[in-house]
Design a protein that fits this description.
about 290 residues; alpha/beta; Rossmann fold; Alpha-Beta Plaits; two-stranded antiparallel ribbon; 11 helices
Length: about 290
């Protein structure tokens, strides 16, 4: 079994549209939306949910007034100033670190786990999909990413599928780290801009640190051909592989508006042909890598 995780240095590069297009081309796969902070792959694939589970994240401290002796140790230890002088925890200020729970001499601080969102196993027109929804302003997205990927792997094993196609989060933070660990390879989608070049460098440094093979695709390449050339030359420095570029096309936008992938909208479109070429390149390179 192999897992390809598609990531980007920033949002808006077209990552999810490409994952949707790859979904139409790949076979024997499980789809996984690991961008839980802003999941939107479902907008293209219209999944029918067959299993729904709540996601339990971190805890928020609650002081029991019947057990509390008001010694003040919790107020002294709290680095977030989340405990008032009358020993009430502000749930917004509390970071859930658990220091007050651990050090309270009377055991007066409870730490109930919070329901932070939901995760799902669904059916789509392109195959099974595992995805999730994190609650508004909730944390622990890295933990939810790990859970979603674990369930995707379990589903692939149960249904004897040999590929997990994962739409990863943008950036280089905890959710991204959680999405690439143990992956067979990553495909980084970038844009030909100064910020795109900078973000790509950071992402490739992260991927190299975790020793995951990296491929890079330049989207909207004709918006700045000179910068696209600069990026293509720099890609090889950290050992990544350049798999191609896609020119700007309104077809992607038209497909999103209709809730379709670019491959379904017009198979003869230049962008669709480029996506097909790139997928064949990515698939061949992925097949040459050891399974995990």
């Amino acid at each position: 079994m192999r897992e390809l995780v598609v990531i980007s240095g920033k949002g808006g590069t077209g990552k999810t549209s490409l994952v949707g297009a790859f979904s139409a081309l790949a076979s024997n796969k499980v789809l996984c939306d690991a961008d839980v902070d802003a999941a939107d792959l479902h907008l293209l694939l219209q999944p029918e949910i067959r299993r729904r589970e709540s996601f339990q994240g971190g805890g928020i401290a609650v002081i029991d007034p019947n057990r509390c002796t008001e010694c003040g140790l919790c107020i002294e230890l709290c680095q977030w100033n989340a405990i008032s002088d009358d020993f009430v925890v502000d749930p917004i200020a509390c970071e859930g670190c658990g220091v007050c729970v651990h050090f309270c001499p009377e055991g007066a601080v409870d730490f109930p786990r919070q329901t932070c969102g939901e995760w799902y196993i669904s059916d789509t027109r392109f195959g099974p999909m595992v995805h999730a929804r994190l609650g508004i302003a909730e944390e622990n997205s890295g933990k939810l990413v790990t859970l979603v990927r674990k369930e995707a792997r379990s589903l692939a094993e149960a249904e004897h599928l040999d590929l997990i196609l994962t739409d990863g989060p943008p950036g280089i933070g905890c959710p991204v780290i959680a999405s690439i660990g143990g992956a067979s390879a990553v495909l980084v989608v970038t844009e030909p801009t100064v910020s795109g070049e900078h973000d790509l460098e950071r992402v490739l440094q992260l991927v190299k640190h975790f020793q995951v093979p990296a491929m890079v695709l330049i989207n909207k390449s004709d918006l700045n051909p000179d910068m696209a050339g600069v990026i293509e030359r720099k890609i090889r420095e950290p050992g990544a592989v350049f798999v191609g570029s896609i020119p700007f096309s309104k077809t992607f936008t038209q497909a999103v508006v209709q809730g379709k992938t670019v491959m379904e909208l017009d198979g003869d479109d230049e962008s669709a042909r480029k996506v097909l070429e790139i997928w064949e390149e990515v698939h061949n390179r992925l097949a040459s890598l050891p399974s995990r």
